[in-house]
Amino acid sequence: MTSSPFTVVLLVPTGIGAAIGGYAGDALPVAKALSGVCDRLITHPNVLNGAQLYWPLSNTAYVEGYGLDQFAAGNWGLQPVSQNRIGLLLDAAIEPELRLRHLQAAEATRATLGLDLTDYCLTDQPLGVELRTAPSEASWGTIRNPDSLLRGAEKLRNQARATAIAVVARFPDDPPDSPELQNYRHGSGVDPIAGAEAVISHLVVRQLGIPCAHAPALSPLPVDAHISPRAAAEELGYTFLPCVLVGLSRAPQFIRTAQTRTPEQMWAEQVDAVIVPASACGGSATLSLSHSRIIAVQDNATQMQVPPERLGMKALLVQSYLEALGAIAAYRQGIAPDLLRPHISPLNCLS
């Protein structure tokens, strides 16, 4: 009798200044390592997107945040696919030259990576992205014309037969010398645009029920010799689009209605373990999956202050992702990680 695939969910919430995963693709090494010690890894674009850098992982599901929340709640399942047909939606506010740069990036992924893209679409109005910062310093944002976003996405789905949507919205440019931008480029602070990006993809996934991810359109910044290695992926060119297109190319489709389940599908009750920053355990997906083994990583500090003990959540506290990898290897072999320590607590009689 064969055992079910060992399935891990890796969560690093966006826009909260995570020490690992708060920059473009800097949590990707964690995902790569984890994919080697589990059968199936489920994670989200914030972990896998690295601007022009990416690394396809055959056993890893690229799942947008709203869809991941629905999966974790047991409302939606995930259906693996061999290839999606990606529709590209460009904000009408993007300047002609910057638009051309993004179209050239899309054409490059077709010619060099063999991705299947439909004809692209422009929004009928500028999306009007507005950035905000919460008192906790987490980033968030809004768009003034969400209906225009949805009309464009629906046009790509209905007319171009797109099965996944990549959105490029024009984001406000920070002055190069702004303290927030300088801090971020030098390896501290919060990504000022991440929270607003999540709003855009959440809206499309909620309304259309198909995979979506977002890449911001921004003016290139002046060269800075002191860029942090974690922020360097965002300094390589004019666009962050390639990683989004690669991720969406094999993003699983969402199963939103009850039907006969098949072995390759993924459902919440099949999740064996969840790995999350120790200070950010209050997210919807983590709470929904709290029946699974929760591994809380203390080294990945964030701007949040929601540890598992405040929620009455049973979790294995580990110092680093390296230790989390060891815990997953132990769980997969049916070994409690605490039994690998030099001191083992004795069994006690229940009162």
Q: Indicate the radius of gyration in whole angstroms.
A: 20 Å
Beta-strand segment tally: 15
Sheet bearing the most strands, described?
6 strands, parallel
Summarize model confidence as the mean pLDDT.
93
The span between the termini is 38 Å
| Molecular shape | globular
How many domains comprise the coordinates? Answer: 2
Which strand order spans the largest sheet, edge to edge or round the barrel? 3-2-1-13-14-15
* CATH topology-level name of the largest domain: Rossmann fold
What does this molecule look like?
There is one protein chain. The chain is an alpha/beta fold and 351 residues long. The chain has two domains: 7-80 and 255-340, Rossmann fold; 85-246, Rossmann fold. The protein is built from ten helices and 15 strands. It has helices spanning 28-35, 45-48, 65-72, 96-113, 146-158, 179-185, 194-208, 241-249, 284-288, 321-332, and strands at residues 7-10, 40-43, 60-62, 77-79, 85-90, 116-117, 121-122, 129-133, 139-143, 164-170, 212-217, 253-255, 271-277, 293-297, 316-318. The strands form four sheets. It has a six-stranded parallel sheet. Helix 2 links the parallel strand 2 and strand 3. It is globular. It starts with 6 loop residues before the first strand and ends in a 19-residue tail after the last helix. The relative contact order is 0.19. The mean pLDDT is 93.
What structural keywords apply?
351 residues, alpha/beta, Rossmann fold, six-stranded parallel β-sheet, five-stranded parallel β-sheet, globular
